[in-house]
Amino acid sequence: MKIEVPVGWEVTTLGDVAGWGSGGTPSRRNPEFFNGSIPWIKTGELGDKFIRGTEEHISEDAIKKSSAKIFAAGSVGIAMYGATIGKLSIFGIDASTNQACAVAKPLCDLLSNEFLYYYLLSERRALIDSGKGGAQPNISQGILKDWPLSLPPLNEQHRIVAKIETLFSELDKGIESLKTAREQLKVYHQALLKHAFEGKLTAQWREQNRDKLETPEQLLARIKQERQARYQQQLKDWQAAVNVWEKNGKEGKKPGKPSQHKELPPITEDEIALLPVLPSSWGYARLAEISKIGSGMSVSKDRKLSDPVDVAYLRVANVQRGELVLEEIKRMPIEKQALPELALEKWDILFNEGGDRDKLGRGWIWEGQVEPCITQNHVFRSSPYFASEFHSKFISHWGNTFGKDYFEKGGKQTTNLASINKTVLSMFPVPLPSIEEQEMVIRALDDSMSLIGSLEAEVESSIAKCETLRQSILKKAFSGQLVPQDANDEPASALLARIHSERAGRSPVKTRVKE
Predict the structure, then answer these.
(1) Cis omega (within 30 of 0) on the bond before 106?
(2) Which CATH fold would you assign to the domain 10-153+490-505?
(3) What separation in angstroms does the CA of 332 have from each of 90, 318, 350?
(4) pTM for the structure as a whole
(5) First-to-final CA distance of the chain
(6) In this structure, which topology does domain 186-455 adopt according to CATH?
């Protein structure tokens, strides 16, 4: 199929207008190879338009005794495989590379290296998609050399590059402003939560209703009554289950007796000093005083089950800060008898046990999206004795903001992981305004966060549009639609003729290697 190109342009290949090569990795068994002054580029260092420095340097001896070679400044490198595939840069220095980097040196000064850079950038996705290999794509030098190129006159190449950079500069300024706006929204989001738990969002409402609101002491007394009533009901249910078990000849495991709440030590002045100053009508209570703390089930293929049931379970990855990600919910078999104790209930509050330190205590509320559902053992759940959406959201928002510091200080750190345990979570201090005020706080937060979410979505959409526009600019650039043509430019056919003439008169052009 014939490719239509603008007047003065010629259809050729990347291998026809540039010399291609790749580098190598000297043996690390000889430390002297990496104790030299020659910059050695790894593909992970590609990405910026120009690369002017490297993490490692190799010696002249390493060049002589390995496949590594030096490519002249002005060459264009592109990663051929691995996690960095398609990343590229212009070498701002003479440098060597590893074997995962293909390097092009434009021939005879008839191809602008910046034009080549932007062209490869425009073709990056297509090159990756065309890459051959097993599980991972591989952009071979063969693919690169055979890749078609619509070549404009040299002067037009320079005009195209100048126009791209002008437009990209304007785009980058716009994207930078959008990213600044995104960060400001995050700051506002945090400030909003801070004000919420300092009582500032509901200050006027609280003043108007101060004689009607339940005190923290009264609320906690009601919670304790509910907690005790639930325990008594659990005892009755347990006794009934034991009676059934005995009538069935004590077959299977005896039902476990419910545990009674253990009194917790009062919140100390040292703990209070680390927490926000609350309005005078608020108080603090430990999480285990106002909710039942439970853990999940470990995943095990070797567990022997007498009466298994297959259930959905939440992993740490499902439980994000302020949201649940439920696109992928895994399943595991558990003992049917254990399901009532493990099953999540609507408005349970989820807290991650560990992982990276900043993930400690991360979580959100359960709204009954999947029934039945349990948690993996790395996800705790807090079941409030007063179950309601507003009460649970209030506690979870608190855990995701001021709770972060508490969990980081109370978490246990190993070499790679950090974790909290049930005791740390049980002792977590939680603000306790009246139930009515908790609802007002959450309504105010929901309204404001909905607006913030809409603004964030608009910002992300605008950033995405900018990136789409960037690709549109490149597409126009390499189809002759970005800059006007000049009849005085030497046509690309003459450039190619000179290349072919030089090749006919000497050995094939190779990427320059320093001696």
Answers:
(1) no
(2) Adenine-n6-DNA-methyltransferase TaqI; Chain A, domain 2 (3.90.220)
(3) 51, 15, 19
(4) 0.77
(5) 44
(6) Adenine-n6-DNA-methyltransferase TaqI; Chain A, domain 2 (3.90.220)
Q: How many CA atoms lie within 13 A of 411 on its CB side?
A: 25
Tokens 């979580």, residue located: 363
User: Phi and psi (nearest 5°) for 401?
Assistant: -115, -85
Residue-wise pLDDT for 233-292, tens only, equals: 999 999 998 999 888 888 878 888 888 888 999 998 888 888 888 999 999 999 999 999
Q: Is 455 helix (H, G, I), strand (E, B) or coil?
A: helix
Centre a 10 Å sphere on the Cβ of residue 77 and count the other Cβ atoms it contains: 27
Q: Are 56 and 97 in contact (CB under 8 A)?
A: no
Burial classification of residue 1, based on how many CB atoms lie within 10 Å of its CB (0-12 exposed, 13-18 middle, 19 or more buried):
exposed
CA Rg value for the chain: 33
278: left (phi over 0), alpha (psi -120 to 50) or beta: beta
| Bridge partners, 330 (sequence order) | 313
Cα three-residue angle 85-89-95, rounded to 5 degrees:
105
The residue length of the chain stands at: 515
Kindly report, as residue ranges, where domains of CATH 3.90.220.20 are found in the chain: 10-153+490-505, 186-455
